[in-house]
Amino acid sequence: MTLPRSDLQDLSDLIGVVYDSALEKRQWQMLLADLNRRFPGFMGAVYTQESEKFIGMYSPDGFNTASQAVYEKHTKDGKVHGISDDQNDHRRELLRRIDPKIGDVYYSREIFTDDEFRRSTSYKTVLEPAGIGHWVSLKFAQSGPREAVFIFFENERSNDTPDPDGLKALFELISPHVVRATRIARALRMAKDAAETFQGFLDAIALPMLVTDRDARLVFSNAAGRRLLERQVLFRIDTNDRLHMIEPRYASEIKNRISGIEQDQVPAGLRVDHGDGPVSLCIAPFHPSMTDAAQADQDLFDARRMFAIFVGSQGDDPVNPGLLRDVFELTPREAEVCSATIMGHSPAEISKQTERAEKTIRNQIQSIYEKVGVSSHQELTDALSVFKTVGAIFNITDQHMFEMPSRPT
């Protein structure tokens, strides 16, 4: 699609609106108003749902109580009253015909014939009474079965002629920016919540922290957590934003631990033998207030469904050099020296072990002190002791909590 220069400038301005609007207190208010102005003949909103069940609809003016009232009047548990289950299939039929992914754009006329659409119970019972019909949608967020979409319905009571092809084309152009802006805004809001929820701990030292939903989809991470993910030695993120452990024998451990925690709301741990040394994970229920979250995120991310993963060391295990790199941005050699130093090795011993000059080792130790923010060996030991208190953060006394999974036979 080639745009004239004037349209390119207009698109650039609209993309700016996308990022600004993602950070609004009432998220997407400005973008919805802009798109409604550009495309008369439509009624635009943000729509959230769980499988077939409607959660909420948000217009530029806020939560749409009229839509909620119509929906609640005619449905129960996501199904229209008074008809057999096999007739109540609009949403299920939609999902049989398409598999919507985050960032995808759809137009109902390309999925259903007009006759199919207008004979559906959803149209006759919910849409037609509200004066709306066919729609164009952009899916921009998902958490498990919950999803959030921009949806623009054709206003059947308006004298304006809708331009669905133009709207669909514009959605396709701005889609990657909407998805990216959503994630940026969520990360900023969640980071603020994290700082408030774990204030004392995070102020002391920023251990790698990853926050996921119940399906192990990454919601956000702190700076050390991002560096850990970038190294791709312990975790990987798949195309659906799910967090996986790279080592095959631990592949399902994160999801299994989360499932167990969801039942009893008690933290769980995992000791992982990998790479340049063992690490220990503490996985705990994460309860942000969500008061600053966008309304769509409040619908998608029930606080009970979120989990924080802290990465550290445990017991007599040495601090993993990779973690030292993630937290303090040490070089690989500095991390190696730092780990040996806090295990009690002298510069002379480290020099012999690494076959590097003792003066080089002492210079690296000084650089480590500066990066960690300490001035002595004792202060360094104290500062790094937090790596070994991952379990103690949550007052865990179960000696088997950090048990390493057995190797498959």
From TrEMBL:
Positions of the HTH luxR-type domain: 327-384
InterPro entries per the UniProt record, alphabetical: Sig_transdc_resp-reg_C-effctor, Tscrpt_reg_LuxR_C, WH-like_DNA-bd_sf
One protein family per Pfam: GerE
GO molecular function: DNA binding
SMART domains in UniProt: HTH_LUXR
GO biological process: regulation of DNA-templated transcription
Gene3D superfamilies attached to this UniProt entry: Winged helix-like DNA-binding domain superfamily/Winged helix DNA-binding domain (1.10.10.10)
Protein name in the entry: Bacterial regulatory proteins, luxR family
Organism: Roseovarius aestuarii
